[in-house]
Fold this protein.
Amino acid sequence: MTPRLPESPTQRISRENELLFFYRGKPFKGLEGDTIATALYSNGVRIFSRSMKYHRPRGLYNLDGYSSHCLVTVDGEPNVRGCATPLRQGMWVTPQNVLGSPRWDLMGLMQFFSFAMPVGFYYKAFHKPSWVWPFAQAVIRRAAGLGRIDPEMPEGVYQNRYYNCEVCIIGGGLAGMEAALAAAEGGVRVILLERRDHLGGDLAYRVTRSNEGIPPYRRAAMLAEAVSACENVTVLLCTSATAIYQSNHVTAVKRGGAGDPYRETYLEVRARSVVVATGAIERPLLFSNNDLPGIMQGSCAHRLARVYGIKPGNRMVVSGCHDGMLEMAADLAELGIEIVAVADGRSSGFDTELISNLHRKGIPFLPGTMARKAIGFKRLKGVQLAPTFGNGRKRWYSCDVLAASAGEAPLSQLLQVAGAKMAYDSAAGQFLPGEFPPGIHAAGKVTAARGEETIAAQGKLAGLMALQDLGLGRTSHIRQVREILDVIEKRPAGRHWTAPPVGSRKCFLCFDEDVTTDQVRDAIDQGFDQSELVKRYTAVGTGPSQSYLSGTNLPLLLADQRGLEPGAVLPTTVRPPVFPTSLAALGGRRYTSSKRTPLHEKQAQLGACFRLTGVWERAGSFADAGLSQEVENVRKNVGFIDVSTLGKFRLFGRDAVKLLNRVYAGNMETVTEGRLKYAAMCNEQGVIIDDGVVTRMGESDYFFTTSSLRAGNTLEWLAFHSKEEDWEAHLVNLTDAMAAVNLAGPRSREVLARLVDADCSNEVFPYMAVRRMKLCGEVDALVMRVGFVGELSFEIHVPASYGAALQDALLDAGKPYCIRPFGLDAQSVLRLEKGHVIIGTDTDNHSTLHDIGLSWAWDRKKAGNQTVGAPALRFTETQKHRQKLVGFTMNEAFRTPSDGSIVVADGTVKGRVTSSRFSPTLGRSIGLALVDPDLAVMGGTLEFYTDGRLNRKGLPEIKTFRGTIVPVPFYDPEGKRLRG
Amino acid sequence: MSMKRRSPLHMGLDPARVITVGGWEIALSYYGETTHSSLVVSDLSHIRKWSIQHRGLENVQVFGLPVPPRPRGVHATGGMVLARLGNSEARLMAWEGDFPSSAVEPFWTDVTDAAASLAVVGPRCYDLLGKLSSVDLGADPVPSAAMAPLEDVTCLIIQLRGEHEIPGLIISCARGYGHFLIHAILDSGREYGIQAAGWERFTRWARGMESLS
């Protein structure tokens, strides 16, 4: 590590805390506060990467993550922006896009063949003869791209975070801090987002005293202190805003530091007003070999020295177009760096005080001059300076660093995605955003403001305007600030450079994609004369730095080449995210939000294999038993299934029965206490959408169940279908409040009798009855005599907190009767044997009650209510072409068509299998199918097409099977077991 | 056999002291529980909860407390929170005092077992909430209630201030989502040093919120 510059108050490194890291497998040392790039730079590394296409060497260019020059792989993660990523102890850094090392890259030979790879060459070359292209494509694809994804990369922690505030300020520089302080005075919640790890922006490292005599860095520190002291201001550092969406919805990414428990956090900020104070970026100067290592932005050189204490080089030439470059040159000279010459592309508009400062230090100042050419191979050796306009004297300077800038360009990307329109401002020489959406304000350099006092006043004004959006701003305050802005001296910006006077094969407009100014000219010659067209043809601005570096130069170059005024060609459209966001951060940390029944853990202890059914995790089967054993045990002994997922509701109020009659097809007036009534629910088309049972618990007080999948929609469904009525009916969702178990099998009555203190005989507790009972003498239970599986069954409902205890009690009481749990798979077979349909499985979006043989569940005569679906049921009742649900057995006993297999006859599709299973009870495969009416003939044959195994080509073999239509139920058609 | 009631929330810690009330085993404190942690979470699944639905809620008194006049309004005492959820629905949560085992009025429904409930207490409770929900409680007065999604699970969130003006949130969701709720809270709160706290800690904090409305 080379010695750093003497300590100064602007530095943000800790000299006491050295950090060990590894680069290309070798140990290096950096300091706490360094970025990866500055640590490498201080260790003498000058070439960080190679360009994507021509593999030209690339060094440090920017320190805010806006360039692709310093993309590296860190601990297996590719494309990390080394210039903006804090150094951490033990980091393993490797260069990317090199074959060898960044210094000796074998792929570097590509740059000597750049003439053979013009822009869009892959559209034209290697296509004839046609067989060449697949090989060429493979080679090009292998060579292209940046970084390699390491599948072994350890998973990082990413999360989402939501914020709500009244004012969101983006940018923690002078304007942003002033805006925050002004807004905070209104007592509202303010959030300030700053991309760097400290507030202050450019002020934080500048030392040149202003008129007031306070050095900028000190002013920044004082303001930062004031902001931090505001209780209603939340400052989020290391946070880059990525977009502003409608209704002032700001998104951002916060990078985690060494002590943070996350790598990245994706933020969503909902604000009522937004102030954008993102500042400006230096746009690249276009000249021959402008990508050589050693050429960097002026602010990069300045921060390198002032923030990190690193000398950018020994001999520096400066070629700029704004006052910041003049200030930087004088300041670096103060730090002992030899400034060979300062060229300024402007011929007027300078800060004369800064020029005097240069003269006092003996630094040659060349107005109206700019860099035309750089020489060197792997690093900068010298620069040619020449007049900006016309052909004047050219001068060569030997140097190892060139700070180059074509002026400042506003970081207006966020405003653009928010809907602001861009227009060229000839006075400022920049494309500036205008026509902001309501509630969005801008301040500072993003509006091309110059001078500390102007920027500060603009910030304050924006903060006050934000308060005004909230109805809190005082007009008098706003007027005062406007008056201050009016009296601040407005110096002309000077004539601006717009396009390079000469072309060159090595004059790069886009560093990411290796697009040169010559190639843009070629694109124009081929008819691509607008920014958007050139972008798509040449890929300019599509790399990691997007439009940050090339976004202003491209339209200016296009206008110049086409002989138009600057601004006649507009920049390309900006789309979010305006700052790169990892997909992992967008995904954030997600939690499994499925529901579990009160018996879940107990079922797991019994070996349950769970699967997601709707929102619920349900036991499909139990590991210690096969499907057949589960089925047989229910048929011969007793089993139980967790049915806590059933929808359970209390409906009460004077008009409760009216509401029930509205949504159920049957007549709910006939529901009595102690009895259950099967109820089917249809939609407006008469299509059955749900079923369950209803019982009356008291005067105008009902309890009903729905299917598991439909429970979540019931509240809305009932509310929707009573919204026009002035009914007094209240619905309480008790789905989660009660655990429920269906105890089924010929021995189930004996098991229940051991648990309750009531008579469970058929005479006292018949089929479709419901009773309140005490379970184990202490727990209130609601027991229903219903069954889905075709056996004597009892549905036991208890408060959910007793769910686990209920299972224990059942297992204990049922032990002498060989009780065992069964899952959904067994239930599916059992109910199919009984011919019970599952709504949504054995029905579709066309199946009415008539189609599935449930016409009896519709009471056409009930009066006084407009039953949902009743008109459609009347209409479809006599339709002859409707598909019917039929039962079938397979002609080959052990063949089972898969669910959904099509039914064919005479070469046309005539229906589909809705469910089919092998029945252990019947010893053959059975099923239900929805078929056309002409096929729905008892004893008729059905032909099924079903997918078989995959053949050698990986395609499924189509097989045909035959079945015969038989009466349903398949099992216990008289219902003796169910009702016995 | 004695039937035990189970909470859907599992703190992943062994309780140091336990009492059994009405079949519930309630952890009074946990091993390692400290008194000065900045964020704690307590299981409230066992506290009594009623859904009160009535057309004229304005005229309804609940154990002496009037129903708040507007939806999202909350009345709280040291042992009871009454939140108005809509025009005709309120939710009562009660933990101190003698309450009848059955519904007091026909328009009350006992929903104790319908919800998984917990309290997150501490200055960082809003930071934790911000990691799971976009709901803006900061714009509402304290106490107040909101129905809002945590991730994608709808929850009832009641914000309160208890002992020493320390803020706290009572969060309830459908019981089936209990495992999600506690996992999300503990995992998200790790950044803020969240700790499981027993019933004693919660009641001490809650007594400090005498008569908030």
In short: Residues 48-110 of chain B form one domain. The CA atoms of residues 51 and 109 of chain B lie 5 Å apart. Chain B has a mean pLDDT of 91.
